[in-house]
Every structure is written in C-alpha cells, then in structure tokens.
Amino acid sequence: MNPWFDELPERITAARHRLAPHILETPVSRAWWLEATEDDGAAPAEVWLKCEHLQHTGSFKFRGALNRLMALAPEEHARGVIAASTGNHGQGIARAARILGIAATVYVPETAAPVKLAPMRALGAEVVTVPGDGLAAELEGRRAAAADGRVFVSPYNDPIVVAGQGTIGLELAEQLPTLDALFVSVGGGGLISGIGAALKAANPELKLIGCWPENAPAMARCLNAGQIHEVAESATLSDGTAGGVEADAITFQSCQALIDEQRFVSEVEIAAALARLAREERWIVEGSAGVALAAFLADRTAYARQRVAVVLCGRNIGFEKFLAAISAADT
Fold first, then answer.
1. At a CB cut-off of 8 Å and minimum separation 6, what does 140 contact?
2. Host H or E run for residue 225
3. Is the pLDDT of residue 41 over 80?
4. Helices assigned H by DSSP within 52-158
C-alpha cells in the first residue's frame, strides 16, 4: 500500500477540525420501514441512513473539495483551481472557491445534468463542457491546469480530497459505534476509501460493501481484473458514479484493501429505491444514493440481527428525471 493510505486516518482527523466551521455534521436516521420483520420470513435488522444528501450543495463532495482548497499554498490560491466533475464535485468546488475567494473553472462531460451545472455558475465558477464522459473531462481538465499552472482538483484521485470525504466515517464511528455493515455507492472510489479508512481504524470487523449500477461498474471491473483498464458503460440513473477510472488513481489500491463485498443493481432497482425513499421518508435523492439503498434492499435478509447503515450520498437530480424514474417504478 502507498504511504498516502497509511497516513489517511491522520489526514481525516485533521480534515475534520479544518472543515468543522463550514460543513454540516449530517444526521443518521433510523429507517424502521427498511427493517425486515417476521412477516418477511426473516429476523429484523437495525437499519440507519447516513443523510449526506442534507450536506451543503446536496452532496458529500463539498467536504473533499473544501478540504483541498483550504490546503492550497498562497501562490496556488492566487492562481485559482481547475476541476472536473459530472456535477457534485463541481458544485463543491464552486462553493468552496466562493467561501475562500478563489477563481475556479470546472470541466464537465457533455452528459452532465443541467441541474448540477446551474449552481456552479451561480456560485461564480466557470463551466467548460467537454465531449465524452467524466474521464474525458478529467483528462482535459488536467491538461488545462498544467498549461495554466493551476492546481487540478480531482474528484477522487487526491489524498486531501479523500481525507475530506473520510470525515463522514468519523461521524459514523461516533453516531453508530457498533456498526456491522455499511453500503456505499462507488464511482472513482474517493467516498468509500475515506469512509472505509476512518471506520475500519475504529472497527476492523466492519463489512464494507461497495455498490454499483450494473450499467456503470468501472471501478469494480478494474478491481476484479487486478488492474485499471477501460470499461464500457451504459446510461444510468447513477450519473454521479459513472465514468472511467484514471490510470494512476490512488483509490484503486485503497478500494482493493477496504471493500469486502461488491453489489450490482439494475436501473429498475435503482428507480424502485428512489420511489421507496420518497414514499417513506418524503426525500428526493439522486441515483447514486439509490444505488446503495437498492443494494441493501436486494440483500437485506442476509443482515438479520445486525446493525447496518446506508450512505445517502446526494440529492442532486433533475426533478423531471426523478419524477420519470419513480413513476416508472410505481407502474
């Protein structure tokens, strides 16, 4: 394992103190309606939702973005930053940049949801659209940053960003200290790497379950092959986790070390999870949050008499897209 990973728990602790004045410590909510009963033929599990969809900007990404920008040297601060994003990381960058008075440019794929782009512009970030997927936007953003002498802030391929996401794990360790299993959706691996490093340092027996849409399983396919490679993906409700993995992604090794099990869910299952959450909790969440919830729903009887949590990682989904998804799920 690389030295950055060994230093991650210490980085996460430092990030929590640094970010405390600016982020929300998001609540956990007991989801009684998710708990299997004897009527289902299984003993009950104790199920909690980590409500990161209530975070500023509507996503966990604000944590990592702010942590990275707060770590800039004065000369880097003056030149500004460039990022790449399908939406949530870009919103986090834009808000963090506005708080700190930094110029920010965000490269986005042509498939990025408009609902995620408008807030970036409203917060003062310049938005540049790139043909292709999220990986294409990352590569173009890195090229532009190198040409301009500006810091490129990756959505996951940066230890300081991962440490920011890991502050969720520290919160969970305090909120649910005897957690048995945790379901987390996976894109580039920054969220699950940060949370996993923080939680497993306190609770090595925790089962960390990585969750993917069947249509976009890039990191999972790379992990199973033992190397990073191109993975063909299809359109998915979980646009926040879609896109390839950078060839030098530091999160590849951390995902190898931390993820205990993999789960894959269909688009139908994701939509059904969104509809179920809206019906029971009156919450709108995005597809990537639905992935983790759908993965638990598909396998919930395996967690009888255990304490389980599901990370609801964000809420930024177009309203029409959300309505279409839950309408189809209810038919």
1. 84, 107, 128, 130
2. helix 218-225
3. no
4. 61-70, 74-79, 88-100, 114-122, 134-148
Residue from 4, 1, 13 nearest 198 by CA? 13
Summarised one tens digit per residue, pLDDT across range 231-242 is 999 999 998 898
Single-letter amino acid, residue 59: S
Helix (H) or strand (E) holding 264: strand 261-265
Beta strands in 123-238 (DSSP E): 126-130, 151-153, 181-185, 207-213
* Chain segment 135-186, per-residue pLDDT in tens: 788 889 999 999 999 999 999 999 999 999 999 999 999 999 999 999 999 9
Query: In 3-state terms, what secondary structure has residue 52?
Result: helix
Residue with tokens 């993999």: 262
The Cα 127–Cα 135 span in angstroms is 16
Q: Which residues contact 324 (CB under 8 A, 6 or more apart)?
A: none
Task: Enumerate helices (H) and strands (E) in the chain, giving the number of each.
Answer: 14, 10
User: In this predicted model, what pLDDT tens digit does every residue of 284-299 receive, in sequence order?
Assistant: 999 999 999 999 999 9
Please give the radius of gyration of the chain, using alpha carbons only, rounded to the nearest integer: 18
Least confident of 34-48, 86-100, 192-206, 228-242: 34-48
pLDDT at 39: 54
From CA 14, how far away is CA 146, in angstroms rounded? 28
- Enter the tokens of residue 323: 């309505």
Largest CA distance in the chain: 63
Q: What is the DSSP letter of 251?
A: H
Can you tell me the distance from the alpha carbon of 279 to that of 294, in angstroms, rounded to the nearest whole number? Answer: 15
Selection from 226, 74, 204 nearest residue 151 by Cα: 74
Q: Is 300 helix (H, G, I), strand (E, B) or coil?
A: helix
